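Researcher: We're teaching a course module on how sequence relates to structure. For the next exercise, students receive a sequence and then see the predicted structure as tokens, so they can try to spot secondary structure elements on their own. Here is the exercise chain.
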Amino acid sequence: MRKKNIVTSEELVRGHQTKGIAIISAITWLFLYNLLPEDFWSKHVASYIPAQVQYITASMLMSSVLLIYFYYSDPLFKRRNSTSDWIKTLYASNLLIEKFGLNLHEANALWFKYLNQWQHKEHPNHSFLKKSHSASYNARLVYFIILISLLYAIVAFLAALYSLKTQINWSFFILSIVFALASFVLYFLNRPPKLKDGILRREPAGVWRSVEESFLQCRSLFELEIVSKCKDVECIVSSIEIGAQKWIR
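Model: And here is the predicted structure for the students to work with:
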């Protein structure tokens, strides 16, 4: 099998992360451009480099550092909170836990071995793999934009308060309002679900609805193609191994 027929999950993830850095860099540039005067760079950084170049460079560096930390910590999918608890209820591996009593590690190992087969471009489920990655990373990105916009709103507001000592700078107040509004509007349109005591208290909206749809599609395919056809774990392992030999090896 030729490697060019495989689009790995790592490649899909890198693509979404690159898009995230570009978008957050643009937002950070807007923030820095309106917060810092152009002579800031010549006074405090380097006078021989054009100010716009330094704005862009600073924006990309800040965004890269923040996003790398955010993606590494992955609070939406790895940490314990209402949203991550809800996401875990959508996992296809739950089918193996419920039907065969496997532990989480065993169930995830089998599910991901099956999912990895979808990396082949000619696999009938390849589009579902791409859709699943797109939905989950769009959700991460929107969540981070909400946080970063709120952070920039607070910084701009503090800068506006500080300007009261000398000469009030109304543009800082306007900048703070713009970022605060952007944060709240995005949150309202993409409200995360709220799961409490195993009961869904708030339905997902926006990007979270897309996450729900894509994850449930993957779960349904796993159930239809593998789980429903097997009566024991040995059958599951054998079925997944046959598929792996066809699509991966």
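Model: If you want an answer key for the exercise: Strands lie at 194-196, 199-202. The mean pLDDT is 86.
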